[in-house]
Design brief:
The chain is α/β, with parallel strands linked by helices and about 270 residues long. It has one domain: 2-enoyl-CoA Hydratase, Chain A, domain 1, CATH 3.90.226. Helices cover about 40% and strands about 15% of the residues. The strands form two sheets. The chain has a seven-stranded mixed β-sheet, with helices on both faces. It has a three-stranded parallel β-sheet with strand order 5-7-9, covered by helices on one side. Strand 2 and strand 3 form a beta hairpin.
Length: about 270
């Protein structure tokens, strides 16, 4: 039985009537928007990934897939998704992970964070990250996992700053960075030097596709314009499949780590054999 299409707009987590962590809208027939509103700087947590971003992506994909006609050979409607930081501020897209909480969970990276990133990297319609402020570490990975990036031209940085607080990156995130940052010099500056790229630097080095003057609403408007240029690529239903072909090592590495047993699981199996 087909699931009923979601009703837009709606807040997440489910049942939130005030102070939602995300608002999901469908402003035009071909555009969906996920506005992330997790605190002052959009820290990425298990709660945000599992109870907010994942169901938001589910709803968008379900709504778009429902546009396909029943006849043989029918196509889907054009479609694109924009992800943006809270529209009532102009400072942060995302300030990255709640790192101390992340490293306390042995499953956070392989079974929570990586699956969301690879979900975005194989999403069936074009995705545009609208960077309306600083985009650090895990936030930058979230943005790079989208297909395109539109960034404010104002005071904001993109940075993988893990080197500065002694946080090694995972093999899967390294593959994402290698897939999306093709210049060895830029990759080195990004990972090993933790360079802070201004919007102008990010554009010159291929980290973003456009920079935009103005406030968050202007960044969203430009992202919507960008979406209209690429939304037709979704109609044949192979957009996500093509991306898996382009970035195979990302998906291979994510799958390998997701299936690897954690120390607790290994211990449980050992004790069960006693």
């Amino acid at each position: 039985m087909a699931m009923p299409s979601p009703t837009f707009p709606f807040n997440l987590p489910a049942g939130t009537s005030s102070a939602p962590l995300a608002i999901v809208t469908h402003p035009t027939p071909t555009l969906w928007v996920i506005e992330l509103r997790h605190g002052a700087d959009n820290r990425i947590t298990t709660h945000l990934l599992l109870d907010v971003l994942t169901p938001a992506l589910d709803a968008v994909e379900q709504d778009w897939r429902a546009t396909r006609g029943p006849e043989e050979g029918a196509r889907w409607a054009p479609g694109a998704l924009v992800i943006i930081g809270a529209l009532d501020q102009d400072k942060f897209f995302s300030n990255g992970l709640d790192y101390l909480a992340a490293i306390q969970s042995e499953i956070f990276f392989p079974r929570i964070f990586h699956p969301v990133l690879t979900r975005l990297m194989s999403f069936p319609i074009p995705t545009i990250a609208a960077l309306n402020g600083h985009t650090f570490a895990g936030g930058m990975l979230l943005a790079l996992s989208c297909d395109y990036r539109v960034m404010t031209s104002g005071k904001a940085w993109c940075s993988m700053n893990e080197i500065h607080f002694g946080a090694p990156i995972t093999a899967c995130t390294a593959e994402i960075l290698r897939a999306k940052i093709r210049s060895p010099n830029v990759l080195r500056a990004c990972i090993l030097e933790g360079r802070r790229f201004t919007p102008q630097d990010a554009l010159a080095n291929g980290l973003v596709d456009e920079i935009v003057d103005g406030k968050s609403a202007d960044i969203l408007h430009k992202a919507g314009e960008f979406a209209r240029r690429v939304e037709g690529c979704a109609v044949t239903g192979v957009w996500g499949i093509m991306k898996k072909s382009i970035y195979p090592r990302v998906f291979e590495t994510a799958t390998e780590f997701a299936h690897r047993m954690t120390p607790n699981e290994q211990q449980a199996i050992f004790q069960a054999k006693l």
